[in-house]
UniProtKB/TrEMBL annotation:
Protein name, per record: Stage V sporulation protein AA domain-containing protein
Keyword Transmembrane: yes
Annotated Pfam families: SporV_AA
Keywords: Membrane, Transmembrane, Transmembrane helix
Domain of life: Bacteria
Upper classification of the organism: Bacteria, Bacillati, Bacillota, Bacilli, Bacillales
Gene3D superfamilies from the UniProt entry: eubacterium ventriosum atcc domain (2.60.480.10)
Residue span, Stage V sporulation protein AA domain: 15-102
Listed InterPro entries: SporV_AA, SporV_AA_N_sf
Amino acid sequence: MSSGGGIRAVTTKAEETVFVRMRRRACVTRGMPITVGDVAGILAERPETERRLREVVVRRTGAEDGVWAVVDALDVVGAVRRAEPGVTVEHVGDPYSLVEIVRPGRRPNVALVGLMWVLLFLGSGLAIMNFHEDVGMPQVHRRVYKMMTGVDAERPYWLQIPYSIGLGAGMVLFFNHVFKKKFSDEPSPLEIEMFLYEQGMDQYLVAEEYRRRRETNGRQAPDPGEENR
């Protein structure tokens, strides 16, 4: 209240709320720090707050780190609170982020990729030929050709060539891929299996990381998913 009897408004600065959502996966270069922006999405009321928090370092990578590292949501929340003590942090989403630590300047070996491509091509071709030989497909083709034409041909190319083309086209349609081109947005069976494999590998890596932390610290480390319960 003022000395003249008037009323003076007293304003208090409201705390800014920052929302943090962990990314499922991230990738950083070995030797570079892992920042909040690398492993989490930040949403704040002011854009300058978002920019500052994205550059906050959560941890640093070194030669002792392996290929994968687990960053817990509590580590990110703690780093945000230390950088901005006056904000309220709200965590949503996953309780951790799995970070792949790659070597700087790593390029694929063209010779190795070519060798693997040749081996896969020859292996898949031999597997198809062995399967057809086991089930007696050449004899089946000759019998079908004789039933259709009445001619007993040793090599019924008029039946074998369309069959071979249809076999390749069926595989393309089944896997829904021609190199990088997809025919529809639906995932192929191979993509679903790779997705399930990736999920299982992520869960294993996270469980191993928390087990290692418990053994190192001698206390119970937070389990993944505990914040969502």
